[in-house]
Design a protein that fits this description.
Elements (H helix, E strand, L loop, with lengths): L12 H11 L9 H17 L6 H18 L15 H30 L18 H5 L2 H18 L13 H15 L1 E3 L9 H16 L3 E4 L8 E4 L1
Antiparallel strand pairs: 1-3, 2-3
Helix pairs in contact: 1-4, 2-3, 7-8
Length: about 240
């Protein structure tokens, strides 16, 4: 018959005692010194049978348990002076076990936090200055206010030039389509005066064209230039 003994590693005699107490499913405060001493000594003997080195601290604890067990068998002395109180060795052992269990639980919780943190990878902040859009001609030579003023003047001029009979069409315009048309114009002409892009005078056409210009400028696909205030505004392919 094969006799197999599992000897888990313990961090000290108190750790071994906690293990034995949990195996018996009893509360630490209700431990039986006689039972726990026997279990502890049996475990130490098994370790020696397996030729495992038993640290001196385990043997010291074994001696303490034997001492506590011996004292528990002796008749208790009557305390003549109530002020001369001496702590029961068993109570002192229970206090040590409770304190050790508390720190062991905290250590386990911290270990779990450490394991979770090890799954998180961080890096130092990167220098993103090279990716920033640097000041260019768009920012130096015109402002959105100038563009809006030019659009407003265009509307006023178109209103004055509008023929008496206006032809109404049902053609719909989209910013995407108009942006492609402007790209084609700038690709062939390279530089276009702002008002030249507003060939048709309809509300939808004017608004969509203006929004397309803003969208292309935002995407850095064109450059908007104005040499001086109140001068004409030109669009160039970037």
């Amino acid at each position: 018959m094969e006799y197999k003994i599992m000897c888990p590693e313990f961090e000290g005699p108190l750790d071994l005692l906690l293990h034995l107490i949990k195996e018996t499913n009893i509360d630490i405060c209700d431990i039986s010194i006689e039972v726990i001493t026997k279990q502890y000594l049996d475990y130490i003997n098994k370790m020696e049978e397996l030729n495992l080195n038993v640290a001196s601290e385990y043997l010291v604890m074994a001696a303490e348990l034997l001492e506590i067990k011996s004292l528990s068998l002796l008749p208790k002395k009557e305390v003549e002076n109530p002020d001369e109180y001496e702590e029961d060795p068993k109570d002192e052992l229970i206090r040590r076990l409770l304190e050790y269990e508390k720190y062991k639980n905290i250590t386990t919780a911290l270990k779990e936090c450490e394991n979770k943190r090890s799954e998180i990878y961080t890096k130092d902040p990167s220098d993103l200055d090279e990716f920033l859009v640097k000041n260019n001609e768009v920012e130096e030579t015109f402002s959105l206010t100038d563009l809006l003023d030019a659009f407003s003047k265009l509307l006023e001029r178109k209103e004055l030039d509008k023929p008496l009979n206006t032809k109404i069409t049902n053609k719909e315009y989209s910013v995407n389509e108009r942006s492609n048309e402007i790209r084609t114009i700038l690709k062939s002409r390279k530089k276009v005066e702002f008002t030249e892009l507003f060939e048709t005078y309809t509300k939808d056409y004017l608004v969509v064209t203006f929004l397309s210009i803003l969208d292309l400028a935002k995407k850095q696909e064109l450059i908007i230039n104005q040499d001086n205030n109140f001068n004409k505004i030109y669009l160039e392919a970037k």
